[in-house]
Amino acid sequence: MNSSALIHAVIDGVLTGSVYALMATGLTLIFGVMDIINVAQGIFVILGAYLSYALSVHWGIDPFVGLVITIPTLFLVGIVVERAFIGRLKGPEKTAMSILVTYAISLVIEGSLNMIFSVNYVQISASYVNKTFRIFGVYFAYIYVYGFIMAAILLVALYVMLYRTRFGASIRASLADQTAAALVGIDVKRVSTICFGIGIAVTAAGGMVFGATNAFNASTSYDLISRLLVIIVLGGMGSLGGALLAGILMVTLEDIVGVVWSPVWSIIAFYIVLVIVLSIRPQGLFGKQSARVA
Amino acid sequence: MKRKGKLFRACGVTSVAAATVMMMATASGASSSGSIAKGAPVKIGISLSLSGDFSADGLAYQQGYKLWAADVNASGGLLGHKVVLDITSDASSPTQVVTNYQKLISVDHDNLTFGPFSTLLTLPAAQTVNRYGYAMIEGAGGGPSVFQAGLKNVFDVTLPVAYDLKPFATWLTSLPASTRPKTISYVTSNDPFTQPVVQEAQKLIGKSVKTVYNKVFPAEATDYTSIADAVAAAKAQVVVLGSVDVPTVSAFMQAFEQAHYTPKAFIATAGPDQGASFIKAVGAGNADGMMVPNSWYGGSKNAASRKMVAEYVKKYGGTAAGVNADIAEAYSVGQVMAQAVTATKGFSNTAIIKYLHSGATLSSVQGSVKFDALGENTAQTAYTFQWQGAKFVEVNPVSDPGAVKVLFPKPAWGK
Predict the structure, then answer these.
(1) Which residues in chain B have Cβ-Cβ distances shorter than 8 Å to A111?
(2) What is the CB-side half-sphere exposure of residue A81 using CA atoms within 13 A?
(3) Which of A123, A220, A260 to mutate to probe the B interface, most B CBs <10 Å?
(4) CATH number of B42-161+303-369, picked from 3.20.20.70, 1.20.120.530, 2.30.30.100, 3.40.50.2300
(5) Would the CB atoms of A120 and B221 count as touching at under 8 Å?
(6) B361-404 pLDDT, tens per residue?
(7) N or C: which end of chain A has fewer CB within 10 A?
């Protein structure tokens, strides 16, 4: 085994894992507040990637600058989807039904993207996407470093919003107990709508980095959603910190196993860890039992 | 209780017997008798990956099949019957493809079937249609697992994939010792299409070039960075990548560039053959020197191929070099079926299977087609293609008149 490959694996894992964590944060936020399992999160990531791609190709807007447009756009898309479909789900079957509804949304968006962009793979390009800098003999790709910084900023912003603002307190109250939150005067419906919007908005950022580091088409979303669901299960459904840790843990562990042992065992190794964690803590690393029951 | 138990048993036996009779009736009824009423169309059932992992290839196949059907119908159809394609999507799922072919045969009563995309889906699809006595002519199920299943109804119009890298291996090992690369890395997805190709290449290259990296990665991987970094760290002069699609190749190319590593030769089993789709993802500058095995390319001199390419470009735009090889594979499937129908003077699947096993040599846009007992096409030649200055050209076998000189060593990324 080559030691530089191992160092690369750890660095790649942390840098890439943070972006996966950002994508998964939206998913876990939506589940935590609304009890909605949004299986359309993968296609929203790809939608975000396509928006950045379109801005870059047609208007020459840098993908990171383009986030000023794509994040609010996807926030609005999230609000519309929540109002039109998700918010209408009621009753004890709400969580199960949400899987079907969001899957249908996913199919509609996938079909639309295929019609608009065709099924040909595309990749977001910018001058720095393939450029690197070197520290102590290790190459760092700018795109991964920028992506990591962006993910860190957005995750900190989410944290500040959740723990330092009045609206954040409303979200946390809704996360803990929706009925009690409503009883103390919180407009849970409004909180849910905005949370769904935020959950979708973060996919714009995650999608942009994903699209700059991978060739993609609409169907790429299928690979993504399975990864994102696994991250929030390991981290604990509804836990933002859990999503962050699990995202980084998943990619880093896979990368290390791939280099030290064999790539073919990398995903299996992660699932072994997942099974062990869930057998000890069925609610995931940072999840609360009540969140799973809900 | 005892009587109730007997009653249940009797009902159970009766139900099983009835179901068996119905299945047999369905199967025999579904299996095309070989005659179609005058004026009625001939329906061809096809399951394609119109969404999911293989959607890019699935949609290209759909274009190829439709192009062939349009050509056949323009010249009067098959034995005077208009061809109607009954296409349904399997979402790239090996379980859905089974359901689809069952429906196409037993519910839609399609007369003939064409294959889906990929070895992964072709095997369950061929097993399913075999139960109904249908022939499965296909162009993308060339992995050994398809032929090792012992089916008599499957016919792959494309060269078996195991031989794909033979011209490349021959070229590499025949280079003079002074210029021949010294080290090689093999890395492949654990896919039934890619693994046999890479393993066969390893056998052919043997010890002529020293192996410094040899790993398999899971087909489900979404992040290839660490695997590609490990390959780059091995610093081999040649890389053989077992890939099934553009994103895999693109991810390795990007990681290599970021690691400032340019192998002297880089061949991928699939991806660079995707024409415009590949160039759009990786950029024309980076494509230079990338190699891929295949049995067809847009610049082929075959007259039927040139006609098909012209029709394709007229209908969908682009250039000959940008035409996906999937189009030619799908078109060839239709051509072979048309020749079998004409030769057997009907639509009997039994007769078609017998005819295709007869050793007859057929023609297609990909070249000659002749099936062995396993359904492999033994008449095709493997080629290696390379991107050179935004052109997709044939480089191997070097003895082939159409081959141009290999761009070796591969230019640095982005140059």
Answers:
(1) 51
(2) 28
(3) A123
(4) 3.40.50.2300
(5) no
(6) 999 999 899 999 999 999 988 899 999 988 889 998 888 878 89
(7) N
